[in-house]
Amino acid sequence: MPEKKKQQAQAEQEQEKEQTSAGPSASEQENQTQQQEGQPQESKEQQLQKQLDELNDRLLRTMAEYDNYRKRSIKEKDAIYPQAKADTVEKFLPIIDNFERAMQAECADEAFKKGMEMIFQSFMKTMTDLSVEEIGKVGEQFNPDLHNAVMHIEDETLGENVVAQVLQKGYRIGERVVRYAMVQVAN
Question: Per CATH, is 133-187 categorized as 3.90.79.10?
């Protein structure tokens, strides 16, 4: 039996030698383990970098959207004021028309008439301060962007397409027409 034990011991030694020569050493196994652990870390780092890039992109897009919103709001606000101003002035135009008619009417009381004229002048000064201009004067060239021709006459003393009579004054603020002048056009 001792011989059998010797043979078994030799066989075991040979197997160990074969395993060590065929398989990786302990340090090689450790390196492989680190590499295997490193691969998930790299992919995890890549995932985190990808998430970071996506969040940065979303942040940049949100900032751009906010900047566009802010610019659009400023533009809308800038457009609202002139429109509101024109709408308000338009509401006062019938009052101006009535003042002009009242001042053309005969009045026995000179003090009353003078008071009306002073109120009208004050009112028109306020309109001038608001950059409101009258449009439509007799003798000026007809302009469809400023005038509304409601009548036509033949008059050789006036030129062609000339305003012969202003039936209702028009008004504008800058280039924006608040009310077109109703005019009679010659020739």
Answer: no
